[in-house]
Amino acid sequence: MEKPEQNEGGRTRTIRLLGREITMPQSRLLRIVIGGLLVFFGCFGFLPVLGFWMIPVGLVILSYEFATVRRWRRRSEIWWAEKRGRRRARDRQQFDDADGR
User: Fold this and answer.
1) Which has the closest alpha carbon to 73: 89, 83, 62, 86?
2) What average pLDDT does the segment 6-12 reach?
3) Distance between CA atoms of 39 and 70, rounded to whole angstroms?
4) What does the angle CA 90 – CA 94 – CA 98 come to, to the nearest 5 degrees?
5) How far apart are CA 3 and CA 15, in angstroms?
6) Which of 19, 47, 73, 101 could be stapled to 96 by a disulfide with Cβ–Cβ 3.0 to 4.6 Å?
């Protein structure tokens, strides 16, 4: 098996989604086009074949190229983790109260 080519920094550009590692194209322009098209066509997610899942995937690809999108992605990741943490803590509290602890 061939190893993917490396960019000038010595690292390949990869995305980790749902436990899978996907190698991105070497061309910056191609990455921007792919990310933009995924976001654009994701807006038509109500149509067959296209889906709303394309929007977050496109934003993840664009976040590798643009600092603004990267900040939005990081903020949403932190918000989601905090929300999940609060929900889990609340569920644990209710479980403990039900047990009479």
Assistant:
1) 62
2) 58
3) 15
4) 170
5) 16
6) 101
Looking at residue 32, its pLDDT comes to 92
The string of pLDDT tens digits covering residues 29-55 is 999 999 999 999 999 888 887 888 888
> What pLDDT is stored for residue 2 in this prediction?
40
pTM exceeding the 0.70 threshold for the entire prediction:
no
Closest CA to 69 of 82, 79, 59, 58: 59
Token pair 């664009």 is at which residue? Answer: 62
Distance of alpha carbon 68 from its chain centroid, rounded? 15
Distance separating alpha carbons of residues 52 and 39, to the nearest angstrom: 9
Tokens 């899978």, located at residue: 20
> How far is the C-alpha of 57 from the C-alpha of 14, rounded, in Å?
13
